[in-house]
Amino acid sequence: MPWDNKNDGPWNNNNPWGNNDNNNGWKGKKNSDDLDKVLENLKNKFSSFFSKGPKSFILAFLVLIFFWIVSGFYTISPEEQGVVLRFGKYTSISSPGLNYHIPSPVEKVIKVPVTVTRSVEVGFRGQTGGNNVRNVDEESLMLTGDENIVDINFVVQWFVSDAAKYVFNIRDPEKNVKDSAESVMREVIGKTNIDFALAEGRDQVRQEAQESLQKILDNNESGITVSSLLLQKSDPPPAVIDDFKDVQRARADQERLINEAQAYANRIVPEAKGEASKVRESAEAYKQEVIAVADGASQRFLSVYKEYKEAKEVTRRRIYLETMEKVMQNMNKVIIDSNNGSGVLPYLPLPELKKSNSSQNN
């Protein structure tokens, strides 16, 4: 771009800071002289130092060696472990505190936090429970075993359990954990029905996914341990969530009615069993009573029969008299002496006797 005042330059004969060179601003010639003086002084000092002979070189070398050796001291904080590499090859693990290693380029120390729990969000981004949570559909929408879609958000919490494996065997830890977690969750959900995944099977899904994720990380020798897998959300897609809730309420009513029926059955069945037990006990008692009566009657008959065999006429007479006694015990009787009543016509007032019997029966 051309300037109008080529003599004064773009700053009107001032320096870039707005000061005129002729006043108290930057003075190019003076500063150039000062720089030359500084360089000359440094040159003279180095010349005087090295002009003292080989001892100066040895002293300088020893000073460099000293600082190089001292640079090998390092500190590991309580939440860290140090992975010591010698020419890029793993040699040992440093504990918290003051440690020493052969300085670079021979050995190198990589500090790894091993007690810090880290989190990976799958299916969403943002603080759980806040207003800035953003759902990530390509991660959260998963296909169930009965070909339905479920919207799942979960958090994986993990920490470094083996610092050496963590340093050498895994390149992007957070991405590795996230991708593996999403993969195992899709596998678990793909084998599960939607009703089970959204209701009573939530904990089983969470536990199975955590175990599968840990197996993958162990097989990869990542040095990572999963401390927990937390389900933040397990719902149907927003477009059908109202219909799904209606179905859930209907199933809850069904469960309630089943429980009420079961409670009624639990109450009425013992009562019925008690009544049946009483009937059985009564029948058993009646059975024993009838058997006892029959046994008694048979024993009496056998005893009478035994007496009858020993004295038939006497036994027959006794049985006859006992029978007549029972028959005539409650009857009106008229007794006529056969010896005194001979030649006399017996007369029985049958109508009067009949009336008398009727009045006694009433």
Structural features, described:
- The chain has 362 residues and is an alpha+beta fold.
- Among the domains are: 55 residues, no CATH class; 43 residues, no CATH class; 119 residues, Band 7 domain (Tetrahydropterin Synthase, Chain A).
- 53% of the residues lie in helices and 18% in strands.
- It has 10 helices and 11 strands.
- The strands form 4 sheets. Strands 6, 9, 10 and 11 form a 4-stranded antiparallel sheet that branches.
- Strand 9 and strand 10 form a beta hairpin.
- Helix 5 crosses helix 7 and helix 8 crosses helix 9.
- The protein is rod-shaped, with a radius of gyration of 58 Å.
- 12% of the residues are buried.
- The N terminus is likely disordered.
Tags for this model:
alpha+beta; 362 residues; Tetrahydropterin Synthase, Chain A
| Secondary structural class | alpha+beta
CATH class of the domain at 118-236: Alpha Beta
Largest sheet: 4 strands, antiparallel
**Rg (CA only):** 58 Å
User: Tell me, what's the shape?
Assistant: rod-shaped
CATH architecture of the domain at 118-236: 2-Layer Sandwich
- Flag low-confidence runs: 1-29
Strand content: 15-25%
Short description, anyone?
This protein is of the alpha+beta class and 362 residues long.
Topology:
Blueprint: H1 28-50, H2 54-70, E1 73-76, E2 80-86, E3 89-94, E4 97-100, E5 107-113, E6 118-122, E7 124-125, E8 134-135, H3 137-140, E9 141-143, E10 149-160, H4 163-169, H5 173-190, H6 194-198, H7 202-219, E11 224-235, H8 241-310, H9 312-328, H10 350-361
Antiparallel strand pairs: 1-4, 2-3, 2-5, 6-10, 7-8, 9-10, 10-11
